[in-house]
């Protein structure tokens, strides 16, 4: 029996009802209860009134000085007040809807009050009160605050946690290797967990927390590093016999010289392709850094060995664009490229699928239509996934399974600090494109009010007359595509009137694919000069002659999204501009727009975005594949993560880790996590 199997109902005070309520927050076993850590503490240290600030939540002790005064509003609403002397001050204590306390407040009685302090009126809005000497007191302590709601109250959770400790505390076992525990001077596990629920003071709480954070990272790292070590030793996947001279010739024939970054990354990929294990590499590069061509070189190398390649992208517009450019690129080499999207006729779709199955079709580009069940490859060797944050982890693995351990290259234009990437995508190698192709001019970014609109339109007019093109991204009013489409249509009508001499195009998600494709094609051929669009063009669209990006209501967009939109311009040799039309009211919005005008560096923007928003929001949904921890925070505990990573790497190098009795528990852990295949462990 261990804590991981003992049902939580064995804790005294947890009945059938509570067992069900706990289940709703994911607690079934005693271990899950004990590892349900508080997310903050309520500070009940007594405060000196001369030092507290207006609006602070404080705890004070005083003497009741006046008879309580009760005002009732209707049947249940009430306001109860009484004067209390705290040190030498008079304070008015105010309780809302606690009329039953009236009879308990006696003149001259000592009372402990916790609440929000209103400095001007010397009022304390009481949230909790107690009389000293009556049972346990919270005074002077830090009380844990758990993420609970509804029928489970903080008080109940605190009590139950203590109960769980008194019944089962002794069963909490050490789980870190002894030498690492000593190396970092960590508390024993039992003590650390107890102190997280009940720290005597902040310092002690931090010390206890450090150990548990480390422990979470340690096991996470153990899992991914062991998995990698094992999959590499099993050498699943194929070692491609890459024809390097042919690849070099392909690169030389490109219409431009690759940047050093691109060459370096291509080198890394070529190395991976030749290894007997499957590549799993993340390519992160700022917008316009030239990721597509890197993918194209990788596809070329693999196709040349006789295998097939797939490129999966998030939108149809992008699929079409890649289809056009890769067809152009690969045609001279006799490489066949196909396009599979959701809007093909059944007959065409069948044709593509069958030529894919015979191996006649060598590269398939598409949206998630690529992962439908009836799509089979003859010999899928490389999967390239563009804009990976849009695909769920599961979709990625379905595509991966369509080949026998194909190599996978994932590209993302949402650069995140490299170190964080290594963790977030723990099982991947990470390559970064840090430089833009030569000759790019920095995009000048301006943030303006709506009343500057006339001038903005005048500016567009001048640029278009000089031969350039412009995007106008429509106001994002709410999370409703319908409203966005309406906005785009209204703006399109206005601008068509305003620019009688130019062609103004319209693009939004609700247009049929043929039409979208047609509009994009006309824009890329400069038959359309001004393109009004919703954010469907956010990622990937590549029209180097476009030099102006205007974003309406820019304050409604996230930083990374604005950076993506801005990245649609500045892709050629002409000077480019990004104009953010915004009415920023809050400080954070202002700060965000300022960041945009200050820097063009996507890595820097990602970092600032992370600061302004916090990682949970930044990575969006759970789809990001970002690991979740109970206590640890990927950003603020990053240094601990690095420690754990290095420790684990060292541990896995030791032969006794794989054989010694001392490490049996860790091998068992890996087995439980299904890291080992059948029969690989003694
Ligand atoms: N080394 C280079 N020199 C000059 N131009 C290049 C170079 N590499 C790529 N390009 C061109 O730069 C433009 C941007 O490249 P690409 O579309 O691959 O960028 P990306 O990294 O995919 O950007 P995004 O994330 O915005 O889609 C393309 O027009 C491409 O042909």
Automatic annotation (TrEMBL):
The Helicase C-terminal domain, residue ranges: 452-611
GO aspect biological process, one term: DNA repair
Q: Which reaction does it catalyse?
A: ATP + H2O = ADP + phosphate + H(+); Couples ATP hydrolysis with the unwinding of duplex DNA by translocating in the 3'-5' direction
SUPFAM superfamilies the UniProt entry points to = Nucleic acid-binding proteins (SSF50249), P-loop containing nucleoside triphosphate hydrolases (SSF52540)
Q: Is Nucleotide-binding among the key words of this record?
A: yes
Q: Which SMART domains match?
A: DEXDc, HELICc
Alphabetically sorted, this entry's keywords are:
ATP-binding, DNA damage, DNA recombination, DNA repair, DNA-binding, Helicase, Hydrolase, Isomerase, Nucleotide-binding
Entry-linked InterPro entries: ATP-dep_DNA_helicase_RecG (IPR004609), DEAD/DEAH_box_helicase_dom (IPR011545), Helicase_ATP-bd (IPR014001), Helicase_C-like (IPR001650), NA-bd_OB-fold (IPR012340), P-loop_NTPase (IPR027417), RecG/Mfd (IPR047112), RecG_dom3_C (IPR045562)
| Segments forming domain Helicase ATP-binding | 272-433
- Enzyme Commission (EC) number: 5.6.2.4
Enzyme category, top tier: isomerase
Q: Which PANTHER family match?
A: ATP-DEPENDENT DNA HELICASE HOMOLOG RECG, CHLOROPLASTIC
Q: What does this protein do?
A: Plays a critical role in recombination and DNA repair. Helps process Holliday junction intermediates to mature products by catalyzing branch migration. Has replication fork regression activity, unwinds stalled or blocked replication forks to make a HJ that can be resolved. Has a DNA unwinding activity characteristic of a DNA helicase with 3'-5' polarity.
Q: What is this protein called?
A: ATP-dependent DNA helicase RecG
What is the native source organism of this protein? Paenibacillus psychroresistens
